[in-house]
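TASK: fixed-backbone design
INPUT:
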């Protein structure tokens, strides 16, 4: 049996589906009861668990658990806090760090040996654009902005995962994600407390209406992204491998330029009765995020992970297929 904590999250829903497809018995846990009906329909037990409440873990199974996928947490994209007016630093540590400790204590008390969680790709922001980043890259992060304390809280949580590895003989691991694409809640996200449409969503909306797609800054700026179905499959592979341990980059392992993104989206979302969007350029407007690329060699070596959607066009073809089929859009209040 496997437990997915944070099963009411974007990646959580896909991860549960992947484990079920692989024939696994799954119990799910989350705070949002609107997902209970979804899991009831799949025959998957749903347990209401607040990561910050250690007594809630008494509701989970006390035996027969082979591993836990921990995806619950507080992210800046979900935080309605403007740091110019307020501060939520304690919330990140309460949910992401103490919550992880509560999961680990549940495991230790019941003799369960594996938790696989996640971390922020911004923990090595200082190395972005310089090389293909490996898991050995020293941490180098910023101390300003709405992602800063989130990174601190996740670093602390992952250090505790390693502490339980060494102190209590566990085999915990965590994945480092860049942006993860797929049908989910983050077409709109909070940036310093202000709800904004994502860049990908802006490209898609403009393409579907035949409007110009505008690229800010350097169109050849290249970024490594991941597809949610690849990430979900990686959790399954990692859980099944005895070699899995510590930090893993979890990306496509291939950079995609802004130019390529715009061209693919303009092709795939062109309106049936209209012409394809033009791509226009505003190099004078800075793009806030530099290039970055992550090495995938460790995941390949330890649990045989090969992303099925490393090609951006293949990724977007599948993404559009799921959008058109209305996959998960009601769960995540999809907004066009």
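OUTPUT:
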């Amino acid at each position: 049996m496997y437990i997915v904590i944070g099963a009411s999250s974007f990646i959580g829903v896909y991860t549960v589906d992947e484990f079920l497809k692989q024939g696994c018995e799954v119990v799910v846990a989350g705070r949002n009861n609107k997902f209970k009906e979804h899991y009831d329909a799949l025959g998957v037990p749903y347990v209401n668990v607040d990561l910050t409440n250690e007594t809630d873990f008494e509701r989970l199974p006390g035996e027969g658990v082979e591993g836990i996928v921990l995806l619950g947490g507080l992210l800046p994209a979900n935080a309605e806090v403007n740091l110019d007016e307020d501060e939520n630093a304690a919330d990140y540590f309460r949910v992401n760090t103490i919550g992880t400790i509560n999961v680990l204590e549940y495991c230790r008390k019941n003799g369960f040996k594996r938790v696989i969680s996640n971390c922020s790709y911004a923990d090595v922001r200082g190395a972005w654009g310089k090389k293909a980043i490996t898991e050995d890259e020293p941490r180098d992060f910023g101390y300003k902005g709405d992602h800063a304390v989130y990174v601190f809280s996740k670093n602390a949580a992952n250090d505790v995962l390693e502490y339980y590895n060494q102190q209590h003989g566990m085999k915990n691991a965590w994945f480092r994600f860049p942006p993860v694409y797929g049908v989910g809640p983050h077409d709109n996200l909070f940036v310093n407390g202000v709800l904004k449409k994502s860049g990908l969503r802006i490209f898609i909306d403009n393409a579907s209406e035949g409007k110009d797609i505008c690229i800010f800054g350097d169109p050849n700026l290249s970024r490594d992204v991941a597809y949610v179905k690849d990430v979900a499959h990686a959790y399954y592979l990692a859980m099944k491998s005895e070699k899995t341990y510590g930090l893993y980059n979890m990306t496509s392992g291939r950079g995609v330029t802004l130019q390529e993104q715009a061209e693919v989206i303009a092709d795939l979302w062109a309106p049936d009765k209209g012409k394809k969007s033009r791509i226009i350029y505003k190099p004078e407007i800075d793009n806030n995020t530099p290039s970055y690329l992550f090495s995938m060699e460790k995941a390949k070596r330890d649990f045989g992970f090969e992303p099925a959607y490393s090609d951006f066009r293949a990724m977007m073809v599948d993404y559009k297929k799921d959008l058109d089929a209305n996959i998960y859009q009601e769960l995540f209040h999809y907004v066009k």
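COMMENT: The chain has a mean pLDDT of 91.
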